[in-house]
Fold Rad50/SbcC-type AAA domain-containing protein.
Amino acid sequence: MKKLNIKLNQAYKLFKNGFEQELEGDLVILSGVNGSGKSQFINMLNMITDKVPADIRNQNDLAKYKINVSIKIDSIEITNIDIAKRTFKDNINITILYSVID
C-alpha cells in the first residue's frame, strides 16, 4: 500500500494549523466517539468543508469553502484538481474483464 500524508495548512474546526497525519496500509479504519473529528478529517481529505450549498454554480463560489490542506501519496502532492467525482470502479481502477463464449 502507498503512504498517504495529510498536512493541514490552516486551523479547521477541532484541528490546529500544522496538524499532520501519515496513513499506511491496505485498510485504514477511522473510528472515534461522537464529536471527535471523524467527519472533519474526511472533509480535509476532500479538501472542502461540509457546508457547501447545493446551488453552487461555479469554481469561484466554491473557493471560499476549500480547506487549505496538503495531501501527498508516496511524496507526490495531490491537488483538488486531481480529485474528481468518479465512480467507485474508476477510483479503484478495476479493469472490466470480458469472457469469450465459443
Residues 3-91 form one domain. The CA atoms of residues 3 and 58 lie 33 Å apart. The chain has a mean pLDDT of 78. The longest helix spans residues 38-46.
